[in-house]
């Protein structure tokens, strides 16, 4: 989902590729950049929040129903960051400086991979030290409720944790049950761990005493259930004592559940660096892009964005005291396809030629140039290339394997037994499994007719949905639109898994979170793995599963390339060019903002107003 597809100057081996991905693992180094003006303490930043949605869950152990991925880094992470942070200096690499623990020390024991991890000397906002007990507290609750965790993949964390041993209040050791890629473990497994304040949260009722309930499965379930009830009480986010004990740089000062307005104040005991200099950080909610832009133009925002259809106003905004910074995102998206096994349309969507025809009907160049105003970037698979020539992207994925061609799409359908009805609905005439027939499970008379789920939150979304509908109609693929708010889309995305029928077969999801948060290394286990909690497509391809598994167990680039090329060929999701996340408009006096995080994390503890 990045901008620009420039060629690599020279080919990279697998080990060289992994070296680039892990740049920055060595030690705590300052973020590079030119000398900045002297910072002034104080001031309030009013930041434009997401359009049409707001935070409705803050407990750092999400469920699928409340997996509001947009507000994970903009809300929960500000208060309870995970053990390890990815995204540094605008690149998708490991950030050792901002992580709560030192990089793992790796070893091997009897074929098992061992990670020894030492916490940094951080403290909770109430002054208590952050210890290994806070790590085991989170892990115990996860083990008791793992099937509710959206990042859970059967056989992965915590299933692949053979042993957990506490060595000291700040050091623990995890023994994994096989030899795994250290890159995968650091990027996709250990990043899930989020220390939680056991000394404040390990209880089963509001008036109950703190105990060690989490140390038994039944006790852990009771603690989990209690904390879930508390987090659903959104009206108490700013007042509940539970949520005042944080490890991150910020604490909620005010929260309005009806509007999703949220204000943060600095955590006075924040152990990381730099300490917050702002007096207050406010996330301002909006119902539409136009409402946000009106607030930006009138000077009500310190950090907003310019909708892509308003780029012509940039000179005026600069004159009003804003600087413009493109915010590239390291993610992928497009048309997510449902493979719900009981849905009657699934047999059609399982046919490779149907997905190929759909991809042929999408003009990727038109999307990049016209809809995304030249600020889009294209990769044909699930490894994004956000403008910095990502060495993990293969040459096959950089190209368009099914370039725009209406005639090619029609021929694919006709040659497989379909009566193609442009601007109508194409019908299967030759049912069967032969090479010139519609394919397994597709009945005679079946129609190329699907429901497309999409958000209504922006002009870009509206333009993209109309393009999809119009383009598909050229080969008789008839779409019924189901337009919902972003919050409704999140709840509907998971509704088709194992369902008898589905309210959607296609889901236009422009900002699908990087590879299945919180997995930052794009190996595909969470979004595409069989039975993964984050696999909203309900996809299960044994060959794909084997390719994904191979990326978890070796540092050789061959299996990784095979995985992404297979996904690009199969188009299990129709991958679209991704625009920049935002064209950010930032007050010129506000510094420390750039470079913006490719995983869309916010780091307002780095922000400050320059002294005049």
What would you say this structure looks like, in words?
The chain has 612 residues and is of the alpha+beta class. Among the domains are: 14-38 and 82-231, Alpha-Beta Complex (Dipeptide-binding Protein, domain 1); 332-579, Dipeptide-binding Protein, domain 3 (Roll). The chain has 18 helices and 25 strands. Strands 19-18-20-14-21 form a five-stranded mixed beta sheet. A hairpin with a 4-residue loop joins strand 9 (250-256) and strand 10 (261-266). Helix 17 (542-553) packs antiparallel against helix 18 (557-570). The radius of gyration is 24 Å and the shape is globular.
Describe the protein's topology.
Blueprint: H1 14-21, E1 39-40, E2 44-51, H2 72-79, E3 85-88, E4 91-95, E5 105-109, E6 112-118, H3 132-144, E7 161-166, E8 171-176, H4 182-189, H5 198-201, H6 217-231, E9 250-256, E10 261-266, E11 280-286, H7 289-297, E12 303-305, H8 314-319, E13 322-327, E14 332-337, H9 346-349, H10 352-360, H11 364-371, E15 376-377, H12 395-398, H13 406-414, E16 418-419, E17 427-428, E18 449-455, H14 459-473, E19 478-484, H15 486-493, E20 506-512, H16 525-528, H17 542-553, H18 557-570, E21 573-575, E22 578-579, E23 582-587, E24 590-591, E25 608-610
Parallel strand pairs: 2-11, 18-19, 18-20
Antiparallel strand pairs: 1-25, 3-4, 5-6, 6-8, 7-8, 9-10, 10-11, 12-23, 13-23, 14-20, 14-21, 15-22, 16-17, 24-25
Helix pairs in contact: 3-6, 10-13, 17-18
């Amino acid at each position: 989902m990045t901008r620009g597809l420039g060629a690599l100057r020279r080919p990279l081996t697998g080990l060289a590729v992994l070296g680039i991905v892990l740049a920055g693992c060595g030690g705590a180094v300052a973020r590079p950049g030119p000398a900045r003006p002297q910072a002034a303490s104080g001031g309030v930043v009013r930041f434009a929040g997401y359009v049409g949605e707001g935070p409705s869950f803050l407990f750092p152990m999400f469920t699928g129903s409340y997996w509001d991925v947009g507000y994970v880094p903009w809300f929960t992470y500000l208060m309870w960051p995970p053990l390890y942070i990815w995204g540094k200096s605008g690149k998708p690499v490991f950030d050792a400086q901002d992580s709560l623990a030192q990089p793992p020390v790796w070893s091997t024991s009897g074929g098992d991979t061992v990670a020894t991890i030492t916490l940094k000397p951080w403290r909770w906002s109430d002054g208590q030290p952050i210890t290994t007990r806070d790590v085991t507290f989170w892990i115990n609750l996860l083990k008791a409720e793992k099937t509710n965790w959206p990042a859970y993949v059967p056989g992965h964390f915590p299933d692949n944790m053979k042993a957990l041993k506490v060595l000291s209040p700040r050091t623990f050791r995890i023994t994994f049950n096989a030899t795994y890629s250290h890159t995968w473990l650091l990027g996709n497994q250990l990043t899930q761990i989020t220390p939680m304040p056991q000394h404040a949260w390990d209880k089963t009722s509001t008036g109950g005493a703190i105990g060690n309930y989490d140390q038994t499965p039944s006790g852990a379930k009771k603690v989990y259930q209690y904390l879930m009830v508390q987090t659903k009480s959104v009206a108490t986010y700013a007042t509940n004592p539970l949520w005042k004990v944080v490890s991150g740089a910020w604490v909620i000062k005010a929260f309005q559940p009806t509007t999703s307005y949220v204000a943060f104040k600095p955590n006075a005991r924040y152990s990381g660096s730099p300490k917050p200099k702002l007096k207050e950080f406010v996330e301002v909610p909006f119902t539409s892009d136009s409402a946000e832009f009106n607030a930006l133009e009138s000077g009500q925002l310190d950090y907003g964005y310019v909708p892509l259809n308003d780029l012509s106003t940039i000179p005026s905004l600069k004159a009003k005291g804003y600087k413009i910074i493109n915010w590239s995102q390291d993610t992928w998206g497009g048309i997510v396809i449902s493979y719900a096994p009981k849905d009657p349309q699934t047999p059609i969507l399982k046919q490779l030629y149907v997905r190929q025809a759909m991809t042929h009907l999408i003009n990727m160049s038109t999307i990049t140039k016209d809809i995304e105003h030249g600020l889009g970037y294209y990769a044909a698979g699930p490894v994004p290339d956000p403008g910095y020539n990502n060495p993990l992207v293969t040459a096959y994925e950089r190209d368009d394997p099914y370039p725009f061609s209406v005639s090619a799409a029609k021929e694919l359908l006709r040659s497989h037994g379909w009566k193609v009805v442009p601007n109508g609905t194409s019908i299967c005439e030759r049912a069967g499994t032969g090479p010139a027939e519609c394919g397994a499970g597709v009945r005679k008379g079946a129609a190329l007719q699907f429901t497309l789920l999409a958000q209504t939150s922006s002009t870009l979304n509206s333009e993209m949905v109309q393009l999809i509908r119009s383009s598909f109609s050229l080969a008789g693929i008839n779409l019924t639109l189901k337009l919902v708010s972003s919050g409704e889309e999140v709840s509907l995305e998971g509704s088709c898994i194992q369902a008898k029928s589905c309210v959607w077969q296609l889901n236009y999801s422009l900002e699908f979170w990087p590879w299945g948060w919180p997995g930052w290394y794009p190996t595909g286990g969470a979004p595409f793995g069989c039975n993964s909690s984050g696999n909203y497509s309900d996809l299960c391809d044994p060959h794909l599963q084997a390719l994904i598994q191979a990326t978890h167990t070796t540092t050789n680039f061959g299996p990784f390339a095979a995985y992404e090329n297979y996904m690009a060929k199969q188009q299990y999701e129709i991958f679209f060019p991704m625009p920049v996340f935002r064209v950010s408009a930032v007050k010129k006096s506000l510094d420390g903002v750039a470079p913006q995080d490719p995983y869309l994390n916010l780091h307002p503890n780095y922000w400050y107003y320059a002294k005049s």
